């Protein structure tokens, strides 16, 4: 059985669930999970967790993402992207200096408040917003704070001109950021309706486009018996946490999932990884109710168990 993280390049026209369904058939295994939804019309990096690595999926989902988006100025849509019906437009001739776009990008860097679009997978009262939207029902949406780490204008023109000028940007952001909602906000700051014309996710956590395989490439490698060459160990998803190699005494206690005195690494970090022979055994975190103690959050088992599963 395959074990680890398979960075997939999700192609346009597929949902994240479609990718998991197809991989289950290709790999002939059920324990597969993705690490955050990508809309069907978005392509890009979608790390897939296989076997016990599904336990690490939330850490990849929570990590930062990098996107390249094309912003179209002059028309706002129902879905905030190119697939929606027009709800507002200003098709006057425009002259938008690149320096002005950079000023707006800079002003929106840091913490910003977003309201999820109606056509999104956010749940309100147990139902996803897009279910309400498809029935024409408007519901109150919870605003949330997201973090934009960095934005960069990639288009090189000094002025973006025309009735519906476009420009390309790169966005490095935290969990839960809606790039199409950001596109609308950029348009508002420039004084025009806007939408996201296209989007590519170029990185998810520590996985980038250069790590990825398409579904067709996955199938070819599996048929050639070489797929394991493209699968990353679960430790790659945990690289952002401090790690400690276990001695034999502590190894037995951690392997049993015991609550233990808090490790010094947890004074400044919420989580840490315990390893044996360089392989992840468990992720521990500060105990939420008992100061001075730590408890297991995820258990990955002994290195010997992992070898047997390869």
Automatic annotation (TrEMBL):
EC number(s) recorded for this UniProt protein: 5.4.99.25
Gene label: truB
Superkingdom of origin organism: Bacteria
Similarity comment text for this entry: Belongs to the pseudouridine synthase TruB family. Type 1 subfamily.
Residue numbers annotated as active site: 39 (nucleophile)
Gene3D superfamilies associated with the record: Pseudouridine synthase
InterPro entries on file: PsdUridine_synth_cat_dom_sf (IPR020103), PsdUridine_synth_N (IPR002501), tRNA_psdUridine_synth_TruB (IPR014780), TruB_C (IPR032819)
Claim: Lipid biosynthesis is one of the keywords in the record: no
GO molecular function annotations of the record: tRNA pseudouridine(55) synthase activity
Region (Disordered): 290-310
UniProt function note: Responsible for synthesis of pseudouridine from uracil-55 in the psi GC loop of transfer RNAs.
Keywords: Isomerase, tRNA processing
Protein name: tRNA pseudouridine synthase B
Residues that span the membrane, as ranges: none
Catalytic activity of the protein: uridine(55) in tRNA = pseudouridine(55) in tRNA
Residue ranges constituting the Pseudouridine synthase II N-terminal domain according to the UniProt record: 24-179
């Amino acid at each position: 059985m395959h074990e680890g993280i398979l960075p997939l390049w999700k192609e346009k026209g597929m949902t994240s669930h479609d990718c998991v369904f197809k991989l289950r058939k290709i790999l002939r295994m059920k324990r597969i999970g993705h690490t955050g939804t990508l809309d069907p019309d978005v392509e890009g990096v979608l790390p897939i967790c296989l076997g016990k690595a599904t336990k690490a999926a939330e850490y990849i989902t929570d990590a930062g993402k990098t996107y390249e988006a094309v912003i179209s100025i002059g028309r706002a849509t129902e879905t905030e992207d190119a697939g929606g019906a027009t709800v507002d437009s200003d098709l006057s001739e425009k002259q938008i200096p690149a320096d002005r776009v950079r000023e707006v990008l800079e002003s929106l860097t840091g913490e910003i408040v977003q309201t999820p679009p109606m056509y999104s997978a956010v749940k309100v009262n147990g139902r996803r917003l897009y279910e309400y939207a498809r029935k024409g029902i408007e519901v109150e949406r919870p605003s949330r704070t997201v973090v934009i780490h960095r934005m960069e204008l990639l288009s090189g023109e000094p002025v973006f001109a025309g009735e519906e000028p476009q420009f390309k940007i790169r966005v490095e952001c935290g969990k839960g950021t809606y790039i199409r909602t950001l596109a609308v906000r950029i348009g508002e700051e420039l004084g025009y309706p806007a939408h996201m014309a296209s989007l590519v996710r170029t990185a998810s956590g520590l996985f980038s486009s250069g790590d990825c395989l398409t579904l067709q490439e996955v199938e070819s490698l599996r048929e050639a018996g070489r797929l394991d060459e493209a699968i990353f160990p679960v430790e790659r998803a945990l690289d952002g946490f401090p790690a400690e190699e276990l001695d034999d005494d502590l190894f037995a206690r951690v392997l049993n999932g015991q609550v233990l005195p808090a490790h010094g690494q947890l004074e400044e970090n919420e989580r840490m990884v315990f390893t044996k022979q360089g392989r992840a055994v468990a992720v521990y975190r500060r105990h939420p109710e008992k100061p001075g103690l730590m408890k297991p959050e995820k258990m990955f088992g002994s290195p010997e168990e992992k070898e047997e599963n390869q």
